[in-house]
Amino acid sequence: MKIDTNKISIVGFGNVGSHLAFEFDKQGVDVTHVYTRKKEKALKLVAQINARLVDKLNELPPQQLVILCVPDIAIASVLEEIPKNCPVAYTSGSTELKTFSNRDNLGVIYPLQTFTKGVPLNIFEIPFFIEAKNEYFARLLFDLAWKISRKVSYASSEKRGDLHLAAVWVNNFTNHMNFIADQFLKSKDLEFEHLKPLLLETAKKLQTESPREAQTGPARRNDDTTIVKHLSELTGDKKEIYRILSESIQKTYKND
Description:
By secondary structure, this protein is an alpha/beta fold.
């Protein structure tokens, strides 16, 4: 089956789906159909790209590529409802391609980035990782991703899973640390705003230095006096997280 990617459908119009839809539209790819369970919220956005909002998945155009942007846990069930004659690429980082065996033209177009609806991104700088069940479909997805990014690579399910796990460390876990810091400062009648220049400089430093080289702080200096003081001000999970991270940093640099 010859697949024309000048026209695509989007299933799932949340953070990822809406960003991809608008970027593909901007780069001349016609997003003709959109399916989302949150239809009322999507009406105005879908109208901006002149797409048709469908009520059922079986209304998607036959033989037209579907970009599936739903949570990992929903991929299997949604795939079952998409017509079998529609080629599909899902956007998950951790779901293995071998999980699904009932489609020939099935692949992955995984953008390694955090998306928030309405927050602009330079998608040309976002890495995309491609995998598919056959070489033809893989190449097609690569070329499609290349229309919106200049950082496109092939990656197996295993490598994609490794990237996703690493992304959890640098994005999800670090953001939770920010939440802990925010809660701590509020308890002391201080503002998280004071930490934002530090956060920006931390990220900026990693553009020129490795994470190992960029490490600073009391654990890096083996400043046990400060560490003990900090631990005395914390309780519960927060205290344990601080202790575990400090010990990990100290072990990392013990031979320096």
